[in-house]
Design a protein that fits this description.
Spore Coat Polysaccharide Biosynthesis Protein SpsA, Chain A, 2 domains
Amino acid sequence: MDASIIIPTYYSWDKLQSCLDCLASQTVGAERFEIIVVNNAPLDPTPEDFRLPSNAQVLTEDKPGSYAARNRGIAAAQAELLFFTDSDCLPVPEYVESGLRIAQDHPDIGRFGGDVVLVPNGPEWTSVELYDYHFGLAQKKWVERGRAVTANLIARRYMFDRIGLFNGEVLSGGDMEWNDRATAAGEPIVFAADAIVRHPARASLREFATKVRRIEGARIRRNARRGALNYVPPIQKLIPSFRIFTKMRKDPDLNFRQALGVWQVQYILRLVMISETVRLLWFKQSDVRK
């Protein structure tokens, strides 16, 4: 067994099916890797007509959060090389082969960030999707900062023995927190350009707003030591960023309407972030899950 692929899922069987279909069409044989799906919604069992590859199993994790689910997958994994991806990701056919190769080429490296390529959901990019493309998953840049998102993270098991598991108490930001611990411990990270997963760009503003709220909740928890300063909402973000609009207008691939649309989405999400800061700190409400 060369690799264990760990995928948390939460009310996303349709998307997960597409992900597993991609993993069933890899350029390496199914006997070389296992797939561990961890269902984080115990009240939503596997559909009867679900197509599960022969090398896959479905586990259940009652504790809320994708990081708690990933920790459950780590405990069950048999391989020394662990691949992490998400249920809405679409691994290319060479995904596993490329991950195995880069791990073999860099035997002293404990973690790798595979590329995440955003694709539209339809024939044309919408304003929300274009915003995601320009401001979303930039895995190569994250790797340059010593981080990698778990949409495409590859790590050797000894990393979790040394650094510890993901923080199972958080609903967002656990991948960055774990990578920060690894970087602080002196563990390097390498960008795996050929171990690609395709990721549909977020298509709805509501979905993006939910993500912003989760990230803001994680930021507030990380900065809890700032005390009273946390309670000051970032009022300056009420002012639209004309720098962002100018940047979008300079992009040769965007026309005026598209640049304006991206700018509008960016401003709406700024307002969502401010309202979430106020909701969590001033009104003492809980973090969001979905």
